[in-house]
Amino acid sequence: MAIAHLLGYPRIGERRELKFALEAFWKGECSAQELQAVATDLRTSNWQKQRAAGLDFVAVGDFSLYDHVLDHAVLFGATPSRFELQGKEIDERAYFALARGNEGQPALEMTKWFDTNYHYLVPELDGKTAFKVNAHDYLAQIDEAQSIGVQVKPVLLGPVSFLRLSKAQGIDKLSLLDALCREYAYLLAELKHRNIEWVQIDEPVLALDLDETWLRAFERAYAWFRQSRPKILLATYFASVARYQPYITSLPVDGIHLDLVRAPQQLGPWVNAIPGHWVLSAGVIDGRNIWRTDLDQALALLEPWAARLSDRLWLAPSCSLLHVPVTLAHEHALDAELRSWLAFADEKVAELGILRCALNDGVDSMAEALAAARAAIASRRKSTRVHDAAVKDRIASLSATAEQRSASFAERQRVQRERLQLPLLPTTTIGSFPQTGEIRGVRAALRSGRIDKAEYEKEIARQIEYAIREQEALGLDMLVHGEAERNDMVEYFGEQLTGYTFTQNGWVQSYGSRCVKPPIIYGDVSRPQPMTVETARYAQSLTDRPVKGMLTGPVTMLQWSFVRDDQPRQTTALQIALAIRDEVDDLQGAGIAAIQIDEPALREGLPLQQAQWPAYLAWAVRAFRVTAGVADSTTQIHTHMCYAEFGDILPSIAALDADVITIETSRSHMELLDAFGEFRYPNEIGPGVYDIHSPRIPSVNDIETLLRRAAEVIPASRLWVNPDCGLKTRRWEETRLALHNMVEAAQGLRDSLQADETQ
Ligand code: GLN
Ligand code: ZN
């Protein structure tokens, strides 16, 4: 009998109940009890869904009020000493102080959970860290689940992953391993005591490149778990872990979970390698994407091994369902055909139930459900909404010169200077200006039908004019239209491209109460008509200064969407590249002299394993170059990147061959600049001179100091002056003051540098 289970469920709720409860609690509009009641309801509903689908266990401990890594820091008493919480009970106030900061202390740092768009809080460890398990809340959730009569499988983040994902100051993280594992061992003993049969221990760091020291750490860590404890299912996901087989099979655990969506090829080798008593949990349902599972294909993958594994075969989604929306039940706007191709968390759980029965009772027992799945897969495979011959032909006949600008950078620089007539150290911004209540109100009014399209456009035009006048008054050299018409830099374009669709409720947790609603790319992408040309033309008509056209690049369009699983990512990227390329061409045709193609997500698309970096970087860079390649020498191509360390991909950034790159550097300003300097980055560059994420207004002096330093590593003739990211989250009052100081700093330095040159 195959056993069905899942690794984790979305916490946010069908209608983002958790988000609203959290935000009400933070505003003081609801009590801690009320917040906890919402959390209890969500957990209960998640467990009931798992039970209703016929799963053999429900996952417990996967829920979190903010983040599960933070919960583990709290569970094991690893709160940073700067919060002075050691040995104290962590109530909601203390917990959210860690997550969001308080008057005295900034929050724990946040970073991306592997290659997902979920962000976890990074535990801070140091010489004073003294682990001590405090399992009260964790065990209470187990009691809660047991009380509704389900078979409970607690979930824990494993000790090696916990340490690896933490940051440690002044000590070697691994020196804390034994102390941490001792606490895990206490907890495991307690679980055993509560008659828990299986516990799931996640070690997602096994998806990464690990050196011998870290691999050996597993052996040492798990040696602590030889005493009284439930059986352990070691959960891996996001990549093949076959290369670590010798390390893993010697661990004293009782089974392994494998991601067979990302790495189906590891199944056979693992069946052959595992000890005779281990179970193998086959992650055959995609926990990272929203497509309906090809159940026939999943059954075919398992078939050769099912008899051999027999009772030891478990079925599961590839990873926690945290990364997909909760349910299709509230998607009323999607048409029936498109909808039939999709499966969110609830639908995936149902699929799991079907697979379980098909394996245990024979496919005939599930004939109807399997036929329905088969019909949906077939309709998607041959749909003309998915496949557009014109798009495929264009890709097939794409020439190598498409990604080549018509002249070298030196030549482009010369003709662009002639055309643009900008001063030394030109000033500019990244694109968006404050998204005021007024702007959001106008958008809401259009959506609800209170105003019509014409009125809306008039209002947006007014906002654009306002932004242009402000920039002229500030004395900026290259202007932007301000992006008032955009709610989101991907959605805005996706809505105008074929092959994209949008959900009403497809929210996925990004961090804490913050959710994103990624578009779905379901078909071949093309651009039926110009998307930004009228807006750009209008903005440019208002001023004599150059106004940048503003586009989102193909890699970011891809990275921040749910993508097709029926063709390689790079093919989809190239289709988007061609669509945006057409827009670049039309913008320059309309007289726009500078066009920015934002790629903030280029770095985050990097695969988890370094061996796969070159292939990714090659197609990502090509997609960008295809987008920009249509630009004439006199059209200045800008790009913008943020949120990341770029040091290790500088050659690829240079290979984009953008004429100007503006980049977020405020956090480790000098490090990045040094890297660009050392690498001898060849084109023009605008290192962000102040942090737009902070409400603090930078002084003229602050900015001047940064610029002087920048000019030491990059010749002033190639430097631009700009904030480090878009200004949409700021207010006009602060924006005005900050940009005023920025322009003044640039002017001051410009004068003194020119004076140096004439001496
Ligand atoms: N042009 C966009 C803006 O200014 C860029 C956003 C981003 O970097 N994420 O908002
Ligand atoms: Zn940015």
Short summary:
The protein is an alpha/beta fold. It is built from 27 helices and 21 strands. β20, α25 and β21 form a beta-alpha-beta unit.
Helix/strand layout:
Blueprint: E1 3-4, H1 17-26, H2 32-52, E2 58-60, H3 68-75, H4 92-100, E3 110-112, E4 119-121, E5 124-126, H5 136-147, E6 152-157, H6 159-165, E7 167-169, H7 177-193, E8 198-202, H8 212-223, E9 231-235, H9 245-249, E10 255-259, H10 267-273, E11 279-285, H11 295-309, E12 313-317, H12 336-340, H13 345-361, H14 367-382, H15 389-396, H16 409-420, H17 437-448, H18 453-474, H19 491-494, E13 498-501, E14 508-511, E15 514-516, E16 520-526, H20 533-541, E17 548-552, H21 554-559, H22 569-589, E18 594-598, H23 613-628, E19 636-641, H24 650-655, E20 660-663, H25 669-679, E21 684-687, H26 700-713, H27 732-758
Parallel strand pairs: 1-12, 2-6, 5-7, 6-8, 8-9, 9-10, 10-11, 11-12, 17-18, 18-19, 19-20, 20-21
Antiparallel strand pairs: 3-4, 13-16, 14-15
Helix pairs in contact: 1-2, 11-13, 17-18, 22-23, 25-26, 26-27
This protein binds glutamine and zinc ion.
Residues 430, 600, 640, 642, 664, 725-726 line the site of zinc ion.
